[in-house]
Structures are given as C-alpha cells and as structure tokens.
Design a protein that fits this description.
This protein has about 950 residues and is α/β, with parallel strands linked by helices. The protein folds into 4 domains: about 1-165, no CATH class; about 200-530, Rossmann fold (3-Layer(aba) Sandwich), CATH 3.40.50; about 560-805, Rossmann fold (3-Layer(aba) Sandwich); about 810-945, Rossmann fold (3-Layer(aba) Sandwich). It has a 9-stranded mixed sheet. The chain has a 7-stranded mixed sheet with strand order 15-12-16-17-19-18-23, with helices on both faces. It has a 5-stranded mixed sheet with strand order 20-22-21-24-25, sandwiched between helices. The radius of gyration is 34 Å and the shape is globular.
C-alpha cells in the first residue's frame, strides 16, 4: 500500500486495475475519515458522499472517471505502470466496474429463488448494462475485471455471464452491507470463484437424493398412518434435511464437538428421525399415546415440542447433537440455545466457539415478527453472551401462518432483513435446488467458523399442506395452492435430474423409496449408519441434584476466621487504584464489618456468599442490566478506577484454585437475557447462575420465559435447572412500575415442587440462601424477592456469627423478648413490611403482639410454620399483614395453608391494601397514608370486614 500511495502522491494517476484499492480506501473514509492518509481524506471530502438512492461508491467512481481521462506518467524507480486509457475507454471501464458492483449489491433481487414464482420480480435498472452506458457493441470488448474473482481481463459478455450465474441464479447473496472489507472479499472469492455452485461427487449426489427421499417418504408415511393428527409437516421444505446433515458432517470435519439446535415445531419430527436417529417406533408410540411408566409422573408435552440428543459420526469424529425442547412461543428457544452453548463452551474452555456451534432454525413469519430475535442478535457480539457466531436457517414457506398475506407478515422486503442489524450476511437459496442448498450450507458454516459471526441461510420453499394437517390453506391462499398442487416435489425434480444425467435409473429411484418405507415399517433408524449415545466428560450431568432435600438440614455456615480471610481478599484492590469516594466509603465500612466493629449489610453478605462458593471451587455467573454495581448501589462486585476507567473485579482474585466469577451488565433486555441465563443454567449444574432484574417489575418483559421454561420445563420435559432470579420488590412510594415483582404470579405458578419462592429479610438469610442453592441435594429454580430500601435499613443487618452458624431459616419467629403466654395476637408477614411493623410496635410499647416472618412461601414450610405459631397458646387472633394489594402479594395464594396450619379456634384475618388493578399508587403521600393505616390495623387488630367477608372459613 505504501508504494502505491507514493505513486499516487507523485502522479495523481488512477486507472482501472486500482478501482478495488481506491474503493477500499473510500470505505474506510466513510467509516472513519481519520483512518485514511490526509491526501486521500482531502480528496474524498471533495468528492462527497453518496446521496439517497445512489450506489454507495458513486462519488468515488465519478471522480475516478474524471481522473482517468488524464495521461498517466510512469512512476519513479524501476518498473512500469499500465498506460492510461483513452477518455472513452476509461469511461467504459469504470462503467463495467459499476455494473459488477451493482450485481453484488442487488443481483439477489432478481435471482431465481422462489420455486413457485409467486411474485413478479422487481425491475432493477442498475443491472442493465445500458444503465451504465454499455451497449451491444461493448459485449465482446475486453475489460479489466477489477476485484471480481476472475481472470484479470474478460469480455463484457463473459463478465455478465459470470455475475448473472453467481448473483442471479438459484442463490442470492446479500453481504455488501457488511462494513468490514475482509469478510466481503472472502465471500466474493467463495461465491464468484464457484459461481454459487457446489462441486459434488456422484456418490454425494446420490446421498443427497437418499436424504430427500427420507424427508419426503417420512411425511407421507405419517400422513397415511396417522390421518388428521398434527405433526407440522416439512413437505415443501424437504431440503432442510440434507442441509442439516451437511452442516453436521462439515462441522464435525472442522473440529466441532457439539451442536445445539433450536427450532420450532415445523419439521421437527422429520429432523429427529432422519438426522438424529430417534427410533421411529418411539415416535409411533407418541402418536398412539403409549407412554412409558416413568413419564406418567410428568405432565409431558406434544410430540412436536420434544427435544432429543445423540452422537453422530462425522469425518472429524463423533459430534454430540442436541435439539432443545421448545414451546409454541416459536423464537423463544433462540436465546435458550445460546445460553446452553455458552455454558458448554465454557466447560470445554472453548473461548471463540470452535468446538460448540449454535444453530437456530426459524420460520419466515416468526423471524420477522418476534422481537426476541432482534434481542438475541443484540447479544451476539457482547462480551458476556457471545457464542462465536450462530448459524441461522430460515425455513421460508412464504406464507407465515396459513391465512396471512405476505404483505401482512412484515414491513421489510425480506423476512431476513433483521440480520442486517448485526451485519450478518444472508444467503437466499431456492429450496427446490438441493445442490445449491449444499453450497450455501458450506459457505455459511465456513463463514461462521472463519469470522465467528452470525450468518443466515434463507431457504426459500413452500408449505405443501396447511399450518397443520387438518387445515385447508386454499381457502385463503387459492392461487398459491394451485401452483403447489401442480408442482412436483423437490425429490421428484432432483431424481429426474440425476436420471437425465445418467447417474440413476428409474428402478434405483423406486428402490430408494421402497427401502425407506420398509425401514419405517420395521421401526428402525433410517438416518446415517453410525449413531450412538456416548459417555463423555463434557456432557451435562444432573446426577446428585435431583433428589428431594431442600428442607433437609444442611450446614451453610462458614467459620468467622474463613469469613474474615475471604473479606480481606475481597477488599484488596490493586496498588494505585483510585476508588470513587462513595465506593471508598463503602470499602471502609466493609472492613469494619469484617472486623466485627459494624454489623453486616445486605451487599456485603451477598458478596461474602459468592466468595465462599468461589473459594470452594464453585463458579458464579451473575447478569442483569446493572448487576456489577447493583441498581441500588449496594453490590460493587465490579469497581472502576476513577483515573483510568479500568475495571477490577475483586471476586476474580481470591485465589488460584477458586471458581470463576463473572458479573455482566447486560443489554437492556429481559426476555432474551433471562432466556439465555435459563439455557446456561440448564447446561451448567455446578455453576451458581443468577439473573437480576433492575426492578422486579421488569420481569414482566420475560414472562414467556418464566411461564414456558422456568416454572414448567421440569414437569413438561423433565429438565433440571438451578437458575436464581433476584427480583427487587417492595412498596416504597415509587409508583406502579417500580414496586412489585409480582410475587402473586410466581406463587400461582408454583406446584409439584417446581420452584422455590423466598423473601429473605436479613443479610444472613441471603447469605445462607445462596449457599444452600448450591450445597443442597435438590436443585430447582429459586425466585428471590430482594429488597431495595432494606439494603441500608438500620435494622436489616446481621452479625458475622449469624453467617458463621446456622442455615437459611424458612420461618423466623419473634425476635424480641416477649412472653409467649402474654401474646394474644400473632401477625404473620413476609418481606419489608416486617420492619415497619416492629418499629411501630416498639414505639407503642406493645408486648402482646408477636410478629412471625415467613421467609419461604413455596414450598410452604409447614413444619417450621406450625412450630412457630404453636408457641403462642394464648393467641386469639392471627393476622396476615402484607403491603401489596389484597388481590396481589402472597395472601390469595397461601391463605388456605394458613387456615389449615393454625391451631383450631385461631382465625386468620387479612390486613393490607384493598384490591387494586395497579400494583401501587403513584403519589407518595397516598402511599404513606395507606402504609400507616395497614400497620395500625395490624397492630390494633382492627379488621376491615370488607376485606374479610369469607374469613374465618
């Protein structure tokens, strides 16, 4: 580059062979003017930028034309430079280069992508030579090809044939939106060098027909045997089966050891059987509702939601392939897969994603319509969530759901336009040309593994049947289905092609079909010959975490000496590290807490819990929108040098043998990030995985993840997960959107010991709770209502001894020295309201009112609760007091348990806010008035009859 710049500086000459070089410089200038030498920065600034509707490099090419009309002196020194073109020839040469680039940018718009030819192709004037002042007389003239992957000089006729075959055939490539030159040049070399066609040996082509046969015959067999049953057929998109087969084989040959696939229901049964080798007899049992005895204990799910895992032989060895369980919320599986992949990569120390590959299979309407797709793409290149690039396959039925018109499914030209937000290339391919499908599969996988970035394959096909097998699509799509019913299948088309080329006989073609159907009749695997379940050291192993035992006695205590030692290590900062003054004050306070001079607050106890686990070799992963510091300025797991901006994470520097610790400030997403962490937690049993909402209310944005995975995956699919959700909760006059973590929703979703819901009220409680999550024998999702104001409340403190002894307490009895025989009223509560109650009781000098905290609301601690309330035989009134509205909080979900477990003759009444459609009021003065009233009613025993009409039962 230096020699050329010197030459340009001396001569100012531009000629055809240097067009690509100058365009590269211009691209750099557009991204960052400071990235090019001053001479070129000034020149490009004079030329200006492209206007709307112009080709991106229009200004540089116009200047290029002007310059080429001047004579070109020879450069100084030895060697010679090609003589200058005449003005007319220069103009023609520049026009040819513009034409080549037009095909790169827009050739995909007129490519032969749609097997059905449903819509008229748009007119793209840039692709017409006449648009660039090139005519018939120029077709046989020779031109420089610039950066085209071709001989240096070709006739215009040859150039047109090359770019049309490459960019306007059955493959349409979108990649010119990528700002980096290197991946663009790499793609150009691959597609222009091969003209978007694969080189397949005869045996490979026959195997391709075998896979198409399996894909088609499988669906037809099920359609005949199980008439009218839903299976969400793949018919019309059979090329997906050879695509995934090629993907697995090539990935294995390139060193991939695991592939995790996320897909919705369409084609799932076909893929499970024909690729992963799920025994057909097992599938038939599902169709016929023959359930194994062990599955009687589970709710189960429909067959097209079920996952599967196996090991497939490839040229590079066995590859473990997993298809994730997925509900009908189609795209929600994407971030779950990404989280699972990240955990598997961490386990293999696969830092750039060369051993574990995520593959997401989308539908055309879903990839365009569901926001979690873009949220997941936004995660793809962030530090805490990257998986080294995902290979996306869009099964583009061109219809979305049956009744939709394409104009109603999206606003973008392509369903895959969402890919451009992360500059992912998109390779559109005609699904009825299986060889082209193989070409783009190889291209996409190689791109992903070369650049560790996302890449999309848009498999343009159709749906031969309706949305499901009982549907009649012609009712709303008559013209489309006239074409579909008249069209031979992809298998028939490819078989005819091989027969015409003499590679297959009619008899062999018929035998392929007969052999496959016979294998199905016998219930045997019809996929690749070598399939097995291997035991390997990297597999996900939940043994030891399934047994009951959450309520079993367990020691989560840590000696005072250990705590002080860990605190000292945790409070060390690098020499010269400039703490923010407020953080320095917190550090000084924590030193006093460690020495016993000051009681522990929540933030320090939480960090100590992490430190003790890390010291035992247990990794910790914490993510959320402000998890490093903590939304409420309490955690400070990550600190920042005020002079340099450098960050430091003390919990990563406890000792050489410690577990890994990461605190990730995530993107502003709940749905994708929580789903990612759920996926991570399912694949990493031995890591404490936590997700923290900025405010507990914000979990609303991830309700699909909570409903379909966290609370139900265990009973639907027998999946284990130890994810912890930290949800700041408490009514403090901050309005409806910053008060409630919707405790009632989690309790409503609680059944069959599926999750644990806890509301700890002291630093010691959160310390023991987090440790119990990893040290116990039963690992279930843990939902924690965490505090806000209590983080600094003068009463919400603990001693070091409370961390050094005991365990998490499911119920905390009265802490003041009241005589049990004097207590006539027992107040039951959970969470922040406890501190309001005891402060008011102490201020009033009441000695006949005891306050009991229920710290675990599900599974309800029957034994601990019964023991606590049984200590007050003189009590004549029990009150459940909560600050949430009556139709929210815990009351409606636990009142039946309270009535059942209180002693006979002891009625239980409700005291709290009345029913409300909103979680909290928006005016602080109203909030304070309501809070004071409910505290007064609880302590005085004045019961509002309107809130207790049905009590006692």
């Amino acid at each position: 580059m230096g020699a050329l710049l010197d030459h340009f500086r001396a001569t100012g000459a531009l000629y055809g062979g240097n067009a690509a070089f100058i365009e590269d410089l211009y691209e750099r200038f557009l991204r960052d003017p400071e990235a090019v030498p001053p001479m070129w920065r000034e020149r490009f600034a004079e030329w200006g930028r492209a206007q709307a509707g112009e080709i991106a490099h229009g200004p540089v090419r116009e200047a290029f034309l002007r310059s080429m009309q001047q004579p070109v002196p020879s450069p100084p020194g030895p060697g010679a430079v090609r003589p200058a073109l005449a003005a007319g020839a220069a103009a023609k040469q520049a026009a040819v280069l513009r034409l080549i680039n037009a095909y790169r940018y827009r050739g995909h718009q007129v490519a032969e992508l749609d097997p059905l030819h449903l819509r008229e192709k748009p007119h793209v004037p840039d692709l017409d030579p006449s648009y660039h002042n090139l005519g018939a007389a120029d077709l046989d003239r020779t031109f420089h090809t610039g950066s085209l992957c071709a001989p240096d000089r070709m006739t215009l006729r040859e150039i047109l044939a090359l770019v049309k075959e490459t960019y306007c055939g059955v493959v349409g490539s979108e990649y010119m939106h990528i700002t980096s030159t290197q991946p663009k040049r790499w793609i150009q070399k691959r597609i222009e060098g091969y003209r978007s066609r694969p080189e397949l040996a005869t045996d490979d082509r026959r195997w391709l027909l075998t896979l198409l046969t399996a894909a088609e015959a499988f669906e037809r067999y099920l359609h005949t045997r199980y008439v009218g049953q839903k299976r969400f057929s793949l018919e019309g998109a059979e090329a997906l089966i050879p695509l995934i087969d090629e993907l697995i084989q090539r990935a294995g040959s390139q060193g991939q050891k695991e592939i995790v696939i996320g897909m919705a229901h369409r084609g799932r049964l076909n893929l499970l059987t024909n690729i992963l080798g799920k025994p057909p007899r097992d599938l038939f049992d599902e169709f016929e509702d023959r359930v194994e005895k062990t599955w009687h204990e589970l709710a189960g799910d429909v067959k097209y939601h079920m996952g599967f895992a196996t090991d497939i032989d490839t040229p590079g060895g066995f590859v473990h392939v997993v298809v994730g369980f997925n509900p009908s919320h189609l795209e929600i599986i994407g971030p779950v897969v990404e989280g699972s992949v990240r955990a598997r990569q961490r386990r293999r120390l696969d830092r750039i994603g060369q051993q574990v590959l995520p593959v997401l299979i989308h539908g055309d309407a879903a990839v365009a319509g569901q926001g979690v797709v873009s949220e997941t793409l936004q995660l793809s290149q962030t530090r805490g969530f990257s998986t080294g690039g995902t290979l996306h396959v869009v099964v583009n039925n061109q219809i979305g759901f049956t009744t939709s018109h394409p104009l109603d499914t999206r606003s973008t030209f392509y369903c895959t336009d969402v890919a451009k937000m992360v500059q992912a290339p998109v390779f559109h391919v005609n699904g009825d040309d299986p060889e082209a499908v193989i070409f783009v599969t190889r291209l996409a996988l190689d791109y992903r593994n070369r650049f560790n970035k996302d890449v999309f394959i848009d498999l343009v096909c159709y749906r031969r049947l309706g949305h499901n097998e009982a549907d009649e699509p012609a009712v709303t799509q008559p013209m489309m289905y006239q074409k579909i019913r008249a069209r031979p299948t992809a298998r028939d088309l490819y078989a005819r092609r091989l027969i015409d080329e003499g590679l297959l006989t009619h008899a062999e073609n018929e035998r392929l079909l007969e052999d496959y159907v016979a294998s199905l009749e016998q219930g045997v695997v019809a996929s690749r010959a070598v399939l097995c379940q291997l035991d390997n050291p990297y597999k996900v192993d939940w043994r030891g975490c399934r047994g009951p035992g959450w309520e079993d006695p367990i020691s989560t205590a840590v000696t005072v000496e250990q705590l002080r030692d860990l605190a000292a290590r945790m409070l060390r900062v690098p020499e010269g590290f400039a703490l923010h003054p407020r953080v320095a004050k917190i550090w000084a306070e924590r030193e006093k807490m460690a020495s016993g001079e000051q009681l522990l607050n929540w933030g320090f106890a939480e960090n100590l819990a992490y430190a003790t686990l890390l010291d035992a070799g247990i990794p910790v992963r914490l993510s959320g929108q402000d998890s490093g510091r903590g939304t409420f300025f309490h955690r400070h797991a990550v600190i920042h040098d005020q002079d340099t901006g450098a960050s430091y994470t003390p919990l990563q520097h406890l000792g050489a043998a410690q577990g890994s610790f990461v605190a990730i400030d995530s993107i502003l997403s709940e749905e994708a990030v929580l789903a990612f962490e759920y996926g991570y937690a399912t694949a990493e049993p031995n890591t404490l995985t936590l997700w923290e909402a900025q405010f507990g209310d914000f979990a609303n944005g991830a309700q699909v993840v909570i409903d379909q995975f966290i609370t139900s995956a265990g009973t639907k699919w027998d999946l284990c997960c130890g994810l912890v959700m930290l949800l700041p909760h408490g009514l403090e006059g901050q309005g409806a959107e910053h008060s409630s973590a919707r405790l009632e929703r989690f309790l409503q979703l609680s059944a069959e010991r599926n999750i644990r819901v806890c509301v700890p009220t002291t630093p010691a409680q959160i310390f023991h709770l987090l440790r119990r999550q990893m040290l116990g024998r039963e690992r279930k999702p843990l939902i924690v209502m965490t505090p806000k104001s209590l983080l600094r409340h003068r009463l919400a403190v603990s001693t070091l001894d409370e961390l050094a002894t005991g365990d998490f307490q499911f119920v905390i009895d009265e802490v003041d020295p009241l005589g049990p025989e004097q207590v006539t009223r027992v107040i039951l509560c959970s969470g922040k309201v406890y501190y309001d109650l005891i402060e008011a009781r102490r201020a009033r000098g009441l000695t006949d009112v005891a306050v009991i905290r229920v710290e675990q609301l599900y599974p309800f601690p029957r034994q601990a609760f019964t023991a606590a309330i049984g200590r007050y035989p003189a009590a004549t009134q029990a009150i459940w007091c909560q600050e949430e509205a009556q139709n929210q909080g815990a009351w409606d979900q636990i009142k039946h348990r309270l009535h059942a477990l209180t002693p006979e003759g002891l009625p239980v009444y409700y005291v709290g806010r009345p029913v409300s459609a909103a979680p909290a009021v928006g005016h602080r003065v109203v909030h304070v008035e309501q809070q004071e009233r409910l505290i007064d009613e609880a302590l005085s025993g004045r019961i509002n009859p309107n809130m207790n009409r049905r009590i006692p039962l």
